[in-house]
Design goal:
The protein is an alpha/beta fold and 396 residues long. The protein has 2 domains: 8-206 and 330-392, Rossmann fold (3-Layer(aba) Sandwich); 235-316, formyl-coa transferase, domain 3, CATH 3.30.1540. It has 18 helices and 12 strands. It has helices spanning 17-27, 59-62, 78-90, 104-108, 112-118, 140-147, 167-190, 200-205, 209-218, 252-259, 275-280, 282-293, 298-307, 318-323, 325-328, 353-357, 372-379, 384-392; strands at residues 8-12, 31-36, 68-72, 95-98, 123-128, 194-199, 235-240, 243-248, 312-314, 332-335, 342-345, 361-362. The strands form 3 sheets. A 6-stranded parallel beta sheet has the order 3-2-1-4-5-6. It has a 3-stranded antiparallel beta sheet with strand order 7-8-9. Strand 2, helix 2 (59-62) and strand 3 form a beta-alpha-beta unit. Helix 1 (17-27) packs across helix 7 (167-190). The radius of gyration is 26 Å and the shape is elongated. The model has no long low-confidence stretch (mean pLDDT 97).
């Protein structure tokens, strides 16, 4: 049974943080309807290659918007706010979500109290950069800089670096996902809705478990260290004859097993028996290991390390990751009925019963305003003439 198919989410969304959240909710089977301004739309629609050869459907947008429907609506216009209230009631919206700046809530009529007056049990979610009392602009790299994530990323003697994935965006989405599930449970138990505010900054800082505690406890500077680990050695990237591997020796027993291999017997020295000794000479030890690994293939090294249960991995490219058997069996797909364009989409952490039932195939990311007629005309019952007038006035 698909538990979430009866739930409707109306989302005034753009960029990444909220679209990624509703992408996850779509994978649970929820009915996701994204709202966009009829003139400006979601800026991410214009980012990346124009694979389809049509406006507002560029590649970057396609990555996290499958499985949704799309409406255009100017909620700053009086008619737009009236249509919006009709959407809330006639669609029986369970969750309303937005990543608008808080200063726009009143102007657009989307604040929690306003919507609660229309639908008392609604679950309201606001995703902001720095909380509901701040209107400071916030893009993911800004959050990475302010939260300290960049200070922790990069080589020890190099510049701070952004992460390879937008953790403030996607991490906030994951945290908001959990808050929504708690709110749904609360509503099921009590019949009451919820007002949820999630700050991207607070979400980002919450990942700093070790850095915050250790820096305040010891007074020592916690900063970037490249590919090595502060407390364990050898833990780093090592060159091979055909690429790179990452090796992680987490205790003295694993080190002993590693030096039992013929190629590493020269490193079986008393000063390296304990982790403290290895950490104390990390630069020389890593150099010595690298001199050994670079004359062997990644595949052979991985075979040897796996045989002694030592954590290791090839540094994989994106094609490598996609073809990994553990990934390949969980990938999601989406196909455009018109052009035949096929998308391969990142898998969720857990495949839901809904995804199993639909063969892991989501509907294609929606065109700009693609479902205006279906929802405004068929469900809200506006006539063709009324819809034409709204479009001419740029209300939809």
């Amino acid at each position: 049974m698909d538990l979430f198919k009866s739930l409707t989410v109306l989302s005034l969304e753009q960029a990444t943080v909220l679209p990624y959240l509703t992408f996850r909710l779509a994978q649970d089977g929820m009915n996701i309807i994204r709202l966009e301004h009829p003139v400006y739309g979601d800026p991410n629609r214009m980012v990346g290659e124009n694979i389809l050869g049509e406006e507002r459907m560029n590649a970057y947008f396609l990555c996290i918007n499958a499985g949704k429907k799309a409406l255009t609506l100017d909620m700053a216009a009086p008619e737009g706010r009236e249509i919006f209230r009709s959407l809330i009631t006639k669609l029986d919206v369970d969750i309303f979500a937005t990543n608008q700046l808080p200063r726009n809530y009143k102007k657009l009529g989307i604040g929690y109290e306003s919507l609660k007056a229309v639908k008392p049990d609604i679950i309201w979610l606001g995703l902001t950069g720095f909380g509901p009392d701040s209107n400071e602009a916030a893009y993911d790299p800004i959050l990475q800089a302010r939260s300290g994530l960049m200070e922790l990323t990069g080589e020890a003697d190099g510049d701070p670096q952004v992460l390879g994935v937008p953790l403030p965006d996607m991490g906030t989405s994951v945290h908001a996902y959990g808050e929504l599930m708690k709110a749904l449970f609360r509503r099921q138990a009590t019949g009451e809705g919820s007002c949820i505010n999630v700050s991207m900054f607070e979400s980002s800082v919450s990942w700093l478990t070790v850095p915050i505690t250790l820096s305040t406890l010891t007074g020592k500077k916690v900063s970037r260290r490249g590919n090595t680990h502060e407390f364990f050695c050898p833990v780093s990237v090592f060159k091979t004859s055909n690429g790179f591997i990452y090796l992680a020796v987490g205790n003295d027993r694993q080190w002993k097993a590693m030096t039992s291999l013929d190629i590493f017997k020269s490193l079986d020295r008393p000063e390296y028996e304990k982790n403290q000794g290895r950490i104390g000479d990390v630069e020389n030890l890593n150099k010595a290991i690298n001199e050994i690994t670079q004359i062997h293939t990644s595949e052979k090294l991985i075979e040897w390390f796996n045989a002694i249960t030592l954590p290791v991995s090839k540094i994989k490219s994106m094609p490598d990751v996609v073809s990994d058997p553990l990934v390949e069996r969980r990938l999601l797909f989406s196909e455009d009925p018109g052009s035949g364009t096929k998308l391969t989409l990142a898998p969720p952490p857990v495949i839901s019963p809904f995804l199993e039932n639909i063969g892991r195939k989501l509907t294609f990311p929606p065109r700009f305003g693609e479902h205006n007629h279906e929802i405004y005309g068929e469900i809200l019952e506006y006539s063709d003439q009324e819809l034409a007038n709204f479009k001419e006035k740029k209300v939809i």
